[in-house]
Amino acid sequence: MSHAEEAPADWLVEQAAWLPRSGRALDVACGSGRNALFLADRGLEVVGLDRDEEALDRAAERARARSLEVTWRAQELEQGWRPELDAWDLILVSRFLFRPLLPALGPALRPGGRLFYSTFSRDQRAFGRPHREDFLLAPNELLEACRGLRVRHYFDGVRGHEQASEAVVELVAERELMT
Known about the structure:
The chain has six helices and seven strands; from the N terminus they run H-H-E-H-E-H-E-E-H-E-H-E-E. By secondary structure, it is of the alpha/beta class. The protein has a single domain (about 5-175), classed as 3-Layer(aba) Sandwich (Rossmann fold). The protein has a seven-stranded mixed sheet. Strand 6 and strand 7 (about 165-175) form a beta hairpin. The protein is globular and about 40 Å long.
């Protein structure tokens, strides 16, 4: 397994100051669990969802090796699944885009809960895959989808270096506390 498969996403580590100190975290499309394990190591109660059961098995093995508790669930995310309302202190989505899911993320956060979201922008076509429109955010699309949440961090640009650049959009947003 490569370092990239084991280490948490750089942008998540960079924005870690915005992570809640405790509570329930949902890692949507968690893959091999690198970000879920990072969250669990920080003391969050993590649920990792992905449709790839082999990736979840690898994630569970890595969690056991590190003595971390994570709930792993096989879930087809594009077949009508939605997160529970007012249930999560943190929702993390990294390198995944399914537009019908976007409107459900804000309401799934508890008041004060945070959404961490990062995926590719249309500019990614200049750097390689993915190329399909279904997997690429339009300019300001993520901001529009998160209306009603308070934006704490937003980046729309290129990350990486000459040989491995990626065009990404990153967002950290918070559901306001009820008054």
